[in-house]
Amino acid sequence: MNIKPIALALVVSSSLAAQVTVAHSEHTKGIKPAPESAVQAEFDIVHSKVTTEGNVAVFHMAVSGQAGDKKPTASGALGGSRVFSYVWPTTLDSALVGFASKAGILAFAVTAHPDFDDTPLFDENGDGNLGNDGNVWHSHWVVLAPDSTCGENALKVVDIEEGTTPRLPKTWPGLPILIDSPGWSPVFDADTVEVRVPFDDIGAVEAASFDGVTAALRVNESVHNPLLCVADVFKIASGDLSLPGRVNQ
Predict the structure, then answer these.
(1) 234 in Cβ contact with 40 (< 8 Å)
(2) What whole-number distance in Å separates Cα of residue 117 and Cα of residue 87?
(3) Quick check: is 59 in a domain?
(4) 45 to 10, 154, 195, 196, 200: CA distances (angstroms)
(5) Buried (b) or exposed (e) across 17-28, using 16+ Cβ within 10 A?
(6) Per-residue pLDDT averaged across 216-231, rounded?
(7) How many domains are contained in the chain?
(8) Per residue in 193-207, is it b (16+ CB within 10 Å) or e — as a string?
(9) What is the per-residue pLDDT for 26?
(10) pLDDT digits (tens, 9 = 90+) for 106-164
(11) Is residue 120, in this structure, part of any structural domain at all?
């Protein structure tokens, strides 16, 4: 047996692993879970943090693989379709971004989903069509709450009950759920995804706690109540969704 190619492969593999370890060790602040081989590398969180620069909050997440490299396969229908997401659940009051106060868990999310478009004000792929950009990574504010219909201890994006008129952000995309499409563009760079989000009340952000989650959501077959369930959690940075991260710490 010629062991030279095997030895070379081991050396290269070790070198790459060392580079990843060094890169991840350079991450500062926030939550830094260990890599997990059982989690898809594109969603294997190794760092989640939120920092501020002036009146801008920077939402940052790093994974052990190539961030944003995997998207759902198109199903051809809205009902039952999947959404992949990088999510920062927070303790921020939902009123801060235009929903009613204390409406649920306010989370910032970066998502992709090929079967529908929920950013009607923006042309992410630049083709002049505002309604075909769902598969391009984009950002949302969502309000989450438990719903046993989605599964045991599962969360959903809060539904808007028929006949009600809740307080909604100006960039609400028209879906019957508590979701906002503010248009803040995510930036993917190798193993990281970052989004810069301006705030009028940056002090409220600096006092908040957060976590990091990667997950797949599913559109219910009935396409309402619940419309959008968290169906498959890939990884939680804290391990238990305790939101231990502190902004700028």
Answers:
(1) yes
(2) 18
(3) yes
(4) 25, 20, 16, 19, 29
(5) eeebeebbeebe
(6) 92
(7) 1
(8) bbbebebeebeebbe
(9) 62
(10) 999 999 999 999 999 998 989 899 888 899 999 999 999 999 999 999 999 999 999 99
(11) yes
If you ran DSSP here, which 8-state letter would residue 160 be given?
P
In a domain, 237, yes or no: yes
pLDDT the model gives residue 177? 96
Whether 127 and 120 have beta carbons less than 8 Å apart is answered as: no
- The three state secondary structure string of 127-155 is CCCCCCCCCCCEEEEEEEEECHHHCCCCE
Domain range spanning residue 240? 30-246
Asked whether the whole model's pTM tops 0.85, one would answer: yes
| Amino acid found at 210 | F
The answer as to whether 57 is a domain residue is yes
- pLDDT tens, position by position, 22-61: 344 467 899 999 999 999 999 999 999 999 999 999 999 9
For residues 133 and 77, what is the distance between their CA atoms, to the nearest angstrom?
A: 15
* 190 dihedral zone (left: phi>0; alpha: psi -120 to 50; beta): left
Euclidean distance between CA atoms 60 and 159, whole angstroms: 28
